[in-house]
């Protein structure tokens, strides 16, 4: 039953699991469940979802563009949407874009002269992918595919762990 | 004797003009004379002889700069140099040294020693310098003659290398020389390839051989490299996303990837909702369990143990259950009986449906009715629908989508019933 080879102490799975469980315990400690009213349930769901995303992003840290973008989004949400002005949003987005550009320079990728050459039909799916993957707006296709692959990997681990947690507690 | 001296002196000033042969002949003559003189009268050397020897060395150096490196005389030259170096300390003696300035013998000897030492020290440098010059010249020759002579030049270079390695004196440096030779050969070959590939011969650039009928300018090369990178990454993504092996073409692949990412995101939402719903039990157990052990346990939890059993069930077996549940719910739409067992079963069914690729909308309907008309159940339902939408790519789903949104905003059970009816009819008729 136990498979110690699956989890190395520093692996993404274990890191995410510890963080997520810690967050869950915090959420439950913060507001003990008394009534199962829809609004409370909704709030709890939102908190749990944010905790899941946050713990996943923190497990990846700032190594990936999508994790940085996700962390930024979560921070702005937690600060409160009223306090965040449009200028700060623009500034932070610019910061993200600068970082991605810096990465681009380091990797010595070809510049935007060649982005449009992959065919017209490619652009629609590209845009969709950019919308889905956090922080995908500021990347060229090459890096976008890299980020997508890592994002898929992280999402699958997240889903696996959450499924197991849910199974464990539903029994 | 004087004549030879004069000739040697002339070497000082016009070392470049003398050919190697001439110099060699002069040297031989001088050596013969030296030995004769030595045998005859051991006269201490003169200061003038030293600069002459210096000049000789200089001339030798100068000769190295000249062409005609393919002649083995060059190496004989070095040999000569070595022999010259190995001359006895007293140096060359000349009978008629009255005309030249006399220097005290000890000082002269010392000077001679220092010169010989310097000679010894500089011979490796000289050898290396010579070799470097040879390479430069060989390269020049090759560039001018063309590719046909590559093999010829290679052989020559090898002969040169062999000849060099034969020297006992420079055997220690022979390895380094051969290495430098090889490196220069490699650079020469690569430069050859580059000259073939590109129209303009550019040294130390990326050596790419262009294929027949393809452009060789930097933009198209870069574009080709980029496309290659993208195709590699698409292949990696193909491995990650299940069910992509059959699909060929970038557009279809991207569509599948988008769908898969969307479905994963919705799964996360759904599971977080589920965990939110299962709150009362969670709170206690999380506190009780030790934090260190639990993650490992959860990570190792054999989730597959439960699911294959469910996944093994073909879809049609669950259909009666679905139909029953739907009928049941349609009949008792307002007050659905809420039982934990049924709820769990429905949840399990939905999980199984999530894990399997063949999804139908009927699964979540049982779940929603079992969970009454709470907001969470509405959201779960909508999520499940979205999930099914993503997997069963069908244009009719857009209608369902709008219905779901409506229901979500209004939060009335009647809308959901309508949606369920639509789904049921739609999927049963498939």
Summarize the structure.
Chain A: Keywords: Nucleus, Transcription, Transcription regulation. By secondary structure, chain A is mostly helical.
Write the layout of secondary structure elements.
The complex is a heterodimer of chains A (171) and B (430).
Chain A: H1 12-30, H2 38-60, H3 65-79, H4 86-107, H5 122-132, H6 141-170
Helix pairs in contact in A: 1-2, 1-6, 2-3, 3-4
Chain B: H1 2-14, H2 20-40, H3 49-65, H4 73-85, H5 105-145, H6 150-166, H7 171-197, H8 218-240, H9 250-277, H10 279-288, H11 293-300, H12 303-312, H13 315-331, H14 340-355, H15 362-370, H16 375-391, H17 397-410, H18 413-428
InterPro entries (chain A): bHLH_AtIBH1-like, IBH1-like, IBH1_N
Domain IBH1-like N-terminal (chain A): 11-77
Subcellular location (chain A): Nucleus
Protein model, in words:
The complex is a heterodimer of chains A (171) and B (430). In chain A, helix 3 runs antiparallel to helix 4. The longest helix of chain A has 30 residues. Chain A is globular, with a radius of gyration of 19 Å. The relative contact order of chain A is 0.11. Chain A has one domain. With 171 residues, chain A is mainly alpha-helical. In chain A, 70% of the residues lie in helices and 0% in strands. Helices cover 74% and strands 0% of the residues of chain B. Chain B contains 18 helices and no strands. The longest helix of chain B has 41 residues. At the A-B interface, helix 1, helix 2, helix 5 and helix 6 of A face helix 8, helix 9, helix 10, helix 11 and helix 14 of B.
User: What pair of chains forms the biggest interface?
Assistant: A-B, 69 and 62 residues
Largest sheet of chain B: none
- Cα end-to-end separation of chain A: 18 Å
**Estimated share of beta-strand residues of chain B:** under 5%
Helix content of chain A: over 70%
Helix and strand sequence of chain A: HHHHHH
The helix content of chain B is: over 70%
Structural class of chain A: mainly alpha
Rg of chain B, Å, rounded: 46 Å
The helix-and-strand class of chain B reads: mainly alpha
The largest sheet of chain A, given as strand count, sense and whether it forms a barrel, is: none
């Amino acid at each position: 039953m136990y498979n110690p080879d699956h989890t190395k102490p520093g692996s993404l799975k274990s890191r995410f699991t510890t963080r997520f469980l810690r967050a869950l315990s915090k959420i439950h400690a913060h507001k003990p469940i008394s009534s199962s009213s829809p609004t409370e349930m909704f709030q709890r769901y939102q908190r749990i979802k944010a905790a899941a995303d946050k713990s996943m992003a923190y497990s990846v840290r700032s190594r990936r563009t999508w994790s940085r973008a996700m962390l930024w989004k979560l921070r702005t949400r937690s600060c409160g949407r009223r306090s965040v002005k449009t200028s700060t949003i623009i500034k932070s987005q610019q910061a993200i874009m600068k970082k991605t550009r810096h990465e681009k320079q380091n990797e010595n990728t070809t510049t935007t002269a060649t982005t449009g050459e992959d065919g017209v039909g490619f652009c629609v799916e590209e845009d969709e992918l950019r919308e889905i993957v956090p922080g995908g707006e500021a990347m060229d296709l090459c890096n976008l595919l890299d980020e997508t692959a890592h994002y898929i990997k992280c999402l699958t681990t997240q889903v696996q762990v959450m499924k197991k947690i849910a199974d464990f507690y539903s029994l | 004797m004087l004549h030879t001296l004069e000739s040697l002196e002339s070497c000082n000033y016009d070392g470049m003009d003398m050919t190697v042969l001439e110099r060699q002949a002069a040297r031989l003559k001088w050596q013969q004379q030296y030995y004769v003189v030595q045998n005859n009268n051991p006269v201490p050397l003169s200061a003038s002889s030293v600069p002459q020897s210096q000049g000789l060395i200089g001339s030798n150096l100068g000769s190295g700069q000249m062409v005609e490196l393919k002649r083995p005389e060059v190496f004989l030259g070095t040999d000569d140099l070595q022999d010259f170096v190995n001359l006895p300390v007293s140096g060359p003696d000349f009978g008629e040294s009255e005309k030249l300035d006399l220097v005290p013998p000890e000082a002269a000897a010392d000077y001679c020693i220092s010169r010989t030492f310097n000679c010894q020290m500089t011979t490796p440098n000289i050898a290396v310098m010579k070799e470097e010059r040879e390479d430069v010249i060989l390269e020049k020759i090759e560039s001018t003659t063309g590719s046909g002579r590559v093999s010829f030049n290679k052989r020559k270079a090898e002969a040169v290398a062999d000849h060099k390695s034969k020297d006992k004196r420079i055997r220690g440096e022979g390895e380094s020389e051969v290495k430098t030779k090889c490196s220069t050969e490699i650079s020469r070959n690569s430069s050859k390839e580059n000259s073939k590939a590109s129209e303009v011969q550019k040294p130390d650039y990326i050596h790419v051989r262009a294929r027949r009928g393809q452009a060789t300018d930097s933009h198209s090369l870069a574009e080709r490299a980029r496309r290659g990178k993208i195709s590699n990454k698409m292949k990696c993504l193909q491995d990650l996303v299940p069910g992509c092996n059959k699909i060929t073409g970038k557009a279809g692949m991207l569509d599948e990837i988008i769908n898969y990412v969307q479905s994963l995101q919705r799964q996360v939402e759904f599971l977080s909702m589920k965990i939110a719903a299962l709150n009362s039990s969670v709170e206690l157990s999380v506190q009780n369990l030790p934090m260190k052990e639990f993650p490992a346990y959860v990570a190792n939890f054999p989730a597959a143990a439960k699911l294959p059993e469910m996944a093994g069930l073909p879809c049609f077996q669950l259909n009666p259950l679905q139909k029953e549940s739907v009928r049941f719910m349609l009949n008792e739409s307002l007050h659905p009986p809420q039982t934990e067992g049924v709820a769990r079963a429905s949840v399990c069914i939905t999980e199984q449906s999530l894990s399997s690729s063949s999804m139908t909308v009927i699964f979540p309907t049982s779940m929603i009715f079992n969970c009454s008309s709470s907001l969470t159940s509405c959201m779960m339902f909508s999520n499940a629908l979205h999930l099914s939408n993503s997997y069963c790519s069908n244009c009719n789903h857009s209608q369902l989508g709008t219905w779901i949104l409506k229901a979500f905003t209004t939060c009335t059970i009647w809308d959901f019933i309508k949606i369920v009816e639509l789904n049921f009819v739609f999927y049963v008729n498939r």
